[in-house]
Design a protein that fits this description.
heterodimer; A: 202 residues; alpha+beta; Glutaredoxin; eight-stranded mixed β-sheet; two-stranded antiparallel ribbon; 5 helices; B: 146 residues; alpha/beta; 8 strands; 32% helix
Chain lengths: 202, 146
């Protein structure tokens, strides 16, 4: 190799060494919540639907509690059972504090999810979980307010006839009724508990 | 076969520069100015879309890095609510989604034709090979979008 190219190589290596030595770690504070946070938060869109407990269910009646809002359907084969299992485990991890948390499961399949069917399904996970249903137009308005997508699709299971592809995230609403957090599908119970505890702080 | 001396010098120098570039890319730590990867919907986007303009703001795939570039921030600067990535974002509102584990995440996203958005979160860029791959991918992306 010629003297010139040897010098070039040495110069490049020195440059690499210099840059490496002078580099620094990334800056920035770690996130407080483990899920997605809205900033600034907005008031959670209000709704009044038929509750699985046989009474009208108004979102505003839960002011003072932290609300977990889930959109799904009882015949959901994959998404809803996983999310409800994670939330059930989160409730168990919370212990006594879970008394200040209310899960509301808003159906995206009102044709099949009657209040009775919702009660039966949800009580399998936690008897305190509440379902909500209503006329299709009313539910669609709620979906639109939250940005929830729900579309009917054919089901590989002929007995089910159809399934509903729907938003898989859940929403956390704080004690003051503000929509604060969106928890992506699959978030583990400990992470959900972490965020619930932050919202439960008075 | 022997090359003339000026050509040998040129080839040697070129090889040194390439080698230096590869070594730099592999051994220099990747530095991010913040943990956040920000995407914004500019003001007027809704009106422009309504007028027929095809505007893509979010790429089909977003790449992040655990502990380094691990927060996806979506900000709506438009005057109307927007379905942006996996959620509905009000005018002036931001959505900040942190990732703690390296994995491939799929989100529903009505802004994409496929209805899906993928966020790939890589392991921290601690090995030379990981840094080299990250930089090569970034460079390729810049070239493709130039």
């Amino acid at each position: 190799m010629s003297r010139l190219s040897t010098r070039a190589l040495v110069a490049v290596l020195l440059l690499v060494a210099g840059v490496s030595h002078g580099s620094r770690a990334a800056s920035g504070a770690p996130p407080k919540f483990k899920s997605g946070v809205f900033d600034p938060p907005r008031a959670a869109p209000a709704f009044e639907l038929a509750g699985s407990n046989g009474s009208p269910l108004k979102l505003t009646q839960f002011l003072g509690k932290v609300v977990i809002l889930q959109f799904g359907f009882t015949y959901c084969p994959k998404i809803c059972p996983v999310t409800l299992t994670n939330v059930t485990q989160a409730f168990e991890l919370l212990g006594k504090e879970s008394a200040d948390v209310q899960l509301i499961f808003v159906t995206v399949d009102p044709a099949r999810d009657t209040p009775e069917r919702l009660r039966e399904y949800l009580s399998f996970f936690n008897p305190n979980f509440l379902g909500a249903t209503g006329p299709e137009e009313k539910l669609q308005a709620v979906n639109d307010e939250y940005g929830v997508v729900a579309t009917k699709a054919s089901s590989p299971d002929k007995q089910l006839r159809y399934e509903v592809h729907h938003t898989s995230s859940i929403y956390l609403i704080d004690r003051a009724g503000m929509l604060r957090v969106m928890v992506p599908f699959g978030k583990e119970p400990k992470a959900i508990v972490h965020d619930l505890k932050l919202l439960l702080e008075k | 076969m022997t090359f003339p001396r000026p050509l040998r010098t040129l080839l040697g120098a070129s090889a040194a520069v390439v080698l230096g570039g590869v070594l730099w890319a592999a051994f220099t730590p990747v530095v991010f100015d913040s943990h956040e990867e920000l995407f914004e919907i500019p003001k007027g986007t809704w009106a422009r879309r309504r007028a027929g303009a095809k505007i893509e703001i979010l790429p089909q795939e977003i790449r992040l890095v655990v502990d380094m570039r691990n927060i996806l921030v979506l900000r709506n600067l438009d005057d109307v609510p927007q379905i942006f990535g996996p959620t509905l974002i009000m005018p002036g509102q931001s959505f900040r989604l942190p990732f703690e584990k390296a994995a491939e995440y799929q989100f529903e996203c009505s802004a994409h034709l496929s209805g899906q958005m993928t966020v790939v979160v890589d392991e921290p860029l601690t090995s030379p090979w990981a840094r080299l791959r990250w930089r090569a991918r970034r460079a390729a992306k810049k070239v493709l979008h130039a």
